[in-house]
Structure formats: C-alpha cells, structure tokens
Prior knowledge:
The chain is α+β, with helices and mostly antiparallel strands.
Amino acid sequence: MKFVATEKAAAAVGPYSQGTAGEGTVVFISGQLPMNMETGELETDIEKATLACLTAVEAIVEEAGGAKENLAKLTVLVRDIGQFSKINAVYADFFGDHKPARALFEVSALPKDAVIEIEAYAII
C-alpha cells in the first residue's frame, strides 16, 4: 500500500494519510459499533469505545484474509467532536506507523445510542 501525500493539499491533522493507494481486492467494512464482545454491551468511555470499534474492524479484515495494515480508509462517526484528541491517541497507538486515510464527522446520533462508529475500506 502506498501512502499519498502532497503539499498541494492541507496536511493531515491527525495520525492518518491524505490518501492511500494499492492494488488488490477491495473489502468494504460496514460501520462497527463499540461492542464489548465479552459482555455484549456497548462501551461508553470514548477510549475503550474507539478501541472496540478498531478491534472489530481488524477482526473483519482478518476474516477477509488481510490484516490491519491492509486498511486503506476509515470513516469515524462520533457524537462529540470534543473527544477528537482522545480518539486520535487510541487510533495512533492502534495503527503505529500504518496511517490509512481517514475522515471524522460529528453526528447527532448513532444506532443504539453509541458514542462512536467506524467503517472502513481495505485493499488485500
């Protein structure tokens, strides 16, 4: 996967790339809510919730034959944009040097009253 960066567009304001490119099978991962798979309950703490969503996305891409390094683009929907820095910290720790493209939007509500939802695209 190639991470795309140009000085002709605004720099990323978080741990992600301006764009990604690659060849292979594209996997579309539906929005994942922050489900604690041990309890069956939604996580409400934004850091635990972010990690739960990312872990679910990773599990799906692995089931498709890939790894989190195959994730090319994520869309994060959050109910409180004020949590941006906490989300970024979890995201940066989860991905390390891998920096898939990302968009983050504040929304008024999410299914099951979740605090965050993450959808993704992978190239395997």
